[in-house]
Write a structure and sequence with these properties.
The chain is an alpha+beta fold and about 425 residues long. It has 13 helices and 15 strands. Helix 11 packs antiparallel against helix 12.
């Protein structure tokens, strides 16, 4: 148990923007200890804030704005990692296992885990399942939801529910595991997951292409995808992101000329580039790492600026240009905005908008970005979750009947509303 000044590392999120107060941080070593903690909290009426690698950006894993007595339930010591089941192409991993460790474990057995993201060294299995994390392989293997075959979870009453399963097809009753994916710790605490593993990746080619706009980048992706070449990743970043990454990391220009948007494609084949485009292909391993660095260092690089508001939205792909043009019109009107960058997963229309300048307590710029996303029929929560920052924005993208259903499910699973209060 952690108390006193040492608590700060568990009550503030990675960005430093969201922080709160807790009675203690508790770090159980196994599922039985998790259950004991939750039972004790249920008896005492103390709220429980589940936390994995604490890489979230919406205040969902820290006691931000939690007014009732609470503890932070840190799950990083749940390090179960079974031998890879090579007959069924899956593995059982504890909630505290990092994505990097899981991927290395799968690769050692000749498999791939289908989720990969820049925070792989800190993000955990439990946290990524609870938020249905995406990452750079969604275009090929889907989000975390597509990898989950079963879960072990501790309910709000401290009861351990083993829904890890053993077979691929199982229609015996409700799919409890499916309900927990993306629930952000509000219905139960995930302690382990049985995860699908994929065949090894083929040898990949990486291309960086200069594009005239976000819509143009999407058009290029469509043409490549329709050509029959396998697309393993389709990432994009705007010129401001590219300039920021270059400044922070002292990197050379990616292409001879500046382009409004850069498209990074990872393919299992080779494509012929149109003559009117600038593009470069990675020629060796170090070159591949260099091209990826422009994209993977985007979030960290902009974070060298003060007070970075990190926002995550999804757009129908036909509205990518409408949204980004509206951002360019509206963000300069917000007091304190000094710089902004846009980057993300162009295949799914998932954009990350990072804005530097306004004080952390000022949410005007957040509201502008999320309301623009809703205006163009998008989502205010793509892969970072809703957390405690965006519940009031759900009415922009969800019908009242949907919200009522969420409340009924929450009340049935957690009658006293003690699991991650204020989230969703």
């Amino acid at each position: 148990m952690v108390t006193g000044s040492a608590l700060l590392g568990f009550t503030s999120d990675w960005s430093g923007r969201f922080t709160g107060e807790a009675l203690a941080a508790v770090r159980p070593k196994n599922t039985e200890q998790v259950a004991a903690v939750i039972r004790a909290c249920a008896e005492a009426g103390v709220a429980v804030i589940p936390q994995g690698g604490n890489t979230g950006l919406v205040g969902g894993s820290v006691p931000y704005k939690v007014t009732e007595p609470c503890i932070v339930l840190v799950l990083t010591k749940l390090q179960r990692l079974d031998a890879v089941d090579t007959a069924n192409n899956c593995v059982v991993a504890g909630a505290g296992v990092t994505i990097a460790r899981l991927r290395a474990h799968a690769q050692a057995a000749g498999f791939e885990y289908g989720v990969d993201l820049a925070a792989r060294d800190s993000a955990t299995v439990g946290g990524t399942v609870a938020t249905d994390a995406g990452g750079v392989r969604v275009v090929y293997w889907g989000t975390t939801r597509a990898q989950v075959l079963g879960l072990e979870v501790v309910g709000a009453d401290g009861e351990i529910v083993d829904a890890l399963g053993a077979v691929e097809k199982d229609g015996a009753g409700y799919d409890i595991s499916a309900a927990l994916v993306g629930s952000e710790g509000t219905l139960g605490v995930i302690t382990a997951a049985r995860l699908r593993l994929q065949s090894p990746l083929p040898e990949l080619n990486k291309f960086l292409i200069g594009c005239k706009s976000w819509g143009h980048a999407r058009e290029i992706f469509n043409k490549v995808a329709m050509s029959g070449v396998g697309v393993l990743a389709a990432e994009a970043l705007d010129l401001a992101t590219m300039q920021t990454v270059r400044e922070v990391n002292s990197l050379p220009p990616a292409l001879p000329n500046d382009w409004p948007v850069y498209l990074l494609l990872e393919l299992d084949g080779v494509i012929d580039m149109p003559q009117d485009l600038e593009a470069t292909m990675a020629m060796d391993a170090s070159d591949r790492l260099r091209l990826w660095k422009y994209r993977e260092d985007a979030s960290v690089s902009i974070s060298t600026h003060p007070n970075v508001h990190k926002m995550d939205v999804s757009l129908p792909v036909q509205h990518l240009d409408d949204f980004t043009k509206s951002l360019a019109e509206e963000l300069p009107k917000v007091a304190g905005v000094a710089r902004w960058v846009v980057f993300g997963h162009v295949a799914e229309g998932n954009l990350h908008v990072d804005v530097a300048g306004p004080e952390f307590e000022d949410f005007e710029v957040d509201e502008v970005v999320y309301r623009l996303a809703a205006k163009f029929a998008g989502s205010v929560a793509s892969e970072h979750g809703v957390g405690r920052v965006k519940p009031h924005l759900l009415e922009l993208v969800r019908q009242p009947s949907y919200m009522q259903t969420i409340k009924r499910v929450k009340s049935a699973w957690d009658p006293n509303w003690l699991l991650n209060p204020g989230v969703l």
